[in-house]
Amino acid sequence: MKTNSASTANDIGNTQDHPQTQKLEEKSRPYKRSISRRSFLGKSLAVGAGTVGAGFLINTRTARASGALTPGDAALLRFPAALEILEADFWIQYNELGGIQDSEVPGGSGIPAYHDALSVLDEDMDQYIHDNTDDEITHHKFLNAYLVSKGAAPANLNPFRTLRGSIATGVNPNLIGKRLTNLTQLTLDTSWWTRYRDDSHNPDLDPTHVFPQAVPSLHVGQHTAIPRTNADLSNANFVQAMANTASFHFPTIEQGGNSLYPSLAQRATMEETVRILISIGPTETMHFQTWSDKAGNAPPLTAVDPVTGVSVTFPNLDVSNQLFKKNLIMPEPCPFLSRSLPIVSIIRPTNTNGAAMGALRFLTAMGLFRGQSPAFFAYMTQLAQAADAARHGGF
Ligand SMILES: [Fe+2]
Ligand SMILES: [Fe+2]
Fold it and tell me: Distance between CA atoms of 194 and 324, rounded to whole angstroms?
């Protein structure tokens, strides 16, 4: 097991300077105008960060010769660093309520009814939630530390820790009102379920193909994956619905990282950047594989949110149709690169063009950032655009 200090979960980047949100907005504007990479990457390595002082700035002409990161490679690491901070933020929320709170992942004291509803899917759900949380914390801490070690700006989302989150008994009271992500108004695209069971379509070759949803009702309306207040715990069927929603949120998120890392790695210039991206990426795949297996154990049910009136139905996926069959958790082979080649079992999509903005749009559509400020979206867009502008062999 990895060892983290007791302060790991709550001190994310506390030693970094906090950018002024207004400055971030200002910095994002010229970015849109100067999408031509030459025009903005020639200026400094800190493009897109908006968070650092002059000490981090490095002349791009000397970057490669000195072993420092090229601006493109820094951007390819900084965007995932930001996403990992966001991942850690919501995984910490899950761990507080349904995981194992310990010195590795401290904070919160759990909600027994929610914890037990999760354990209906697998008795080790709390351990898996804990370990996934631990992994994400190490991902962003490593990526940011690596960026700093190379004289590049880290990702910093501390100014945006403003969302309320759950106030149910069991959360870490110190983090109420200090969340980055919103787990209470999710709209989940569960089409990954059929995308990985379909042996004749690949989103990279069939960008307009619509993969059916595993849980269609999660793809419409807004659903909470965690108890918002103690009142949410009065109906056992709704508690199970929240646990089921969480269990589909887990793989929905992790399959995104599963695609993002190989997508970005194709445009890295330096060997070590490639090594980092292709070493972290497969751990997201391991998360996805685990969670896609557990999601299949979500008990079929229909529940209505007592606060919003929104209904959710979890269908019985114990079917013979290959597109939905729940034990087909390993990637079915599918077309790759060209239909003239044989089908192959692969991660998909891995198209590199616009991969970072695609990931940001996916997470935004999920509702994970509902309540966040325009400055937050400006900052994340800035990082994603810089990552998408990076080119293999370029600066
Ligand atoms: Fe991660
Ligand atoms: Fe992850």
Answer: 6
